[in-house]
Design goal:
single chain, about 550 residues, mainly alpha, Growth Hormone, Chain: A, about 0% strand
Length: about 550
């Protein structure tokens, strides 16, 4: 085998799977592997290409949506009001998408990818249509949550189908295409949103989703062929576990999103929500240990490979907060760039990420999945740490270079983990495994936003309290206004505030550096040196 991974079956008893061509096997010859649930492959040709095109359209819906909506927030708030709660246009969507990932993953393993994907597209389409008809901010937030319920099905199922449709040696190609979709969305989304908000009505942001979603729905329903399942493969749905997972994850994410914003971290609401989430977590474990077909099966954490990848991807979600959330503020407040320039600095990472992801296969074929990912996150640790060494004020090209290098490192980190972990499980476990990886990444991002946001706020608050100059904002709520309109401050106060933001940036990137280092340690100490790739996933 050319990947440098284990050629035997999984050491924890995993067995089964699909022929290298995917569940329906298009794109390769029929396989004679044992097992009644492995049908012969469908003939290669247009059906698989059509399905891949539909998957890219579907991923584009998810990737573009929040970026475009963010650009049109001023117009939305101006029309509907609700400035104090508009952040829930994003938080509500993310919460709904994240907490449903494990449920959809298990459902796709039980009933197949196609019905779950069709359900997700339908919910996203319905949510988009309702968003376009929203009459106030509360209605728009509710419809965005409905969109998120569809988005959760799309995120996990698209990634799972990408693994189903391609054998191991070709899987990096489809993953690189998916990365390209995200990169293209990050680059074009702000401009598209700005054009729509400027020259038409913001409601067209959601109406434009309709033909794309309808096209994806039609192609998937027409061309995606699922394998015939073995008798007895399906079982009763663990609805009690699904409800418990949804409630526990929802409370946890709600506490992380609102903590430090709507109320202090040590206040009664925060502590109460976190305590309730902990109690529900215990309830989830109790229910899942007794369920015949658990939504969150214990093997997700008992298998070293999957557990290590989950923890490492949680670290990825946490560290991503620094470049994606804080860098735009740094670029505008410290570097003096406008919103467009700040967006270009941030998007530099999305240019190198898909290129690195496409090339990652040439590395992991030689040194293995774990070592490739560890190399990528090790490089990311050094690159994130280098941000703290930038001079003040830094030339614009230096942060841009850091973002370009960081995208290259993270592409080398993420793709081998996703491809590798999907190759250690059979078809009937791949949806659950993929969903657990994405769930951990999203939770890590929520935790990172809470922790690193608290670090930034504490740093700036401390600087304001000890300021040797007058005219500064009296509290953190006024800092964003002062950063947006620095000319309203006395020159020495504006300079002092810019320096405070730069110091906060150093602290945030230092926290991201620690998260990257922790991910590297997890891979080196917990993940097996060679991933236990299943025999039917081997490269010839």
């Amino acid at each position: 085998m050319g990947s440098g991974e284990s050629t035997g079956a999984s050491t924890d008893g995993s067995a089964g799977g699909i022929p290298p061509g995917g569940p329906a096997g298009p794109g390769g010859p029929a396989s004679a592997t044992a097992g009644t649930d492995k049908p012969a492959a469908a003939p290669p040709g247009r059906p698989r290409k059509a399905v891949v095109a539909a998957l890219m359209l579907t991923m584009g819906l998810v990737a573009l949506d929040s970026v475009v909506v963010a650009t049109a927030v001023p117009q939305i708030v101006g029309d509907l009001g609700g400035f104090s709660v508009f952040s829930w246009l994003f938080s509500g969507y993310i919460l709904a998408a994240t907490v449903t990932l494990p449920v959809y993953g298990k459902l796709s393993d039980t009933y197949g990818r196609k019905p779950v994907l069709l359900l997700g597209i339908s919910l996203f389409l319905l949510g988009s249509l309702l968003c376009a008809t929203a009459w106030n901010m509360a209605a728009l937030i509710a419809f965005r949550i409905l969109q998120g319920l569809g988005g959760g099905a799309l995120q996990g199922t698209v990634q799972t189908l990408a693994a189903d449709l391609y054998p191991l040696r070709e899987r990096p190609r489809i993953q690189a295409r998916m990365s390209t979709v995200w990169a293209t969305s990050a680059l074009t989304g702000p401009a598209l949103g700005g054009l729509i908000a400027t020259y038409t009505d913001w409601r067209w942001i959601f109406l434009l989703n309709l033909p794309v979603a309808a096209a994806a729905l039609w192609i998937i329903s027409r061309h995606l062929v699922e394998p015939t399942r073995a008798p007895g493969r399906t079982g009763p749905v663990d609805w009690a576990g699904a409800l418990a997972v949804f409630a526990c994850g929802g409370l946890l994410l709600f506490a992380l999103v609102q903590g430090g914003v709507a109320w202090p971290w040590l206040s009664t609401p925060s502590l109460g929500l976190l305590a309730a989430a902990a109690v529900l977590g215990v309830l989830v474990v109790w229910i899942e240990r007794r369920a015949a077909q658990p939504i969150l099966p214990g093997w997700v954490w008992r298998r070293r490979t999957i557990a290590a990848v989950n923890l490492a991807m949680a670290g990825l979600g946490l560290l991503m907060v620094a470049p994606m959330v804080f860098m735009p503020t740094y670029a505008q407040a410290v570097l003096g760039l406008g919103p467009t320039g700040a967006g270009l600095v941030t998007s530099a990472m999305t240019l190198s990420w898909p290129i690195s992801a496409a090339l990652a296969q040439h590395v992991y074929r030689r040194i293995g999945f774990r070592n490739t990912a560890a190399t990528g996150v090790g490089l990311a640790t050094l690159i994130l740490g280098s941000f703290t060494l930038l001079p003040y004020p830094a030339p614009v090209w230096q942060p841009v270079l850091i973002m370009l290098l960081l995208g290259g490192a993270l592409g080398l980190f993420q793709l081998p983990l996703i491809v590798g972990v999907q190759s250690t499980v059979g078809w009937e476990e791949r949806g659950t495994t993929t969903a657990s990886v994405l769930f951990c990444r999203n939770v890590g991002q929520s935790v990172g936003a809470a922790l690193l946001g608290a670090v930034a706020n504490a740093t700036i608050a401390g600087r304001l309290a000890d300021a040797p100059v007058s005219g500064l904002p009296s509290n953190l709520d006024d800092v964003s206004k002062a950063l947006t309109h620095p000319g309203l401050l006395p020159p020495d106060a504006a300079a002092y505030l810019r320096r405070a933001v730069a110091v906060a940036g150093d602290h945030v990137f230092l926290g991201a550096t620690l998260a990257a280092a922790a991910s590297a340690l997890v891979l080196l100490l917990v993940a097996p040196r060679r991933f236990p790739v299943l025999p039917e996933q081997r490269e010839g």
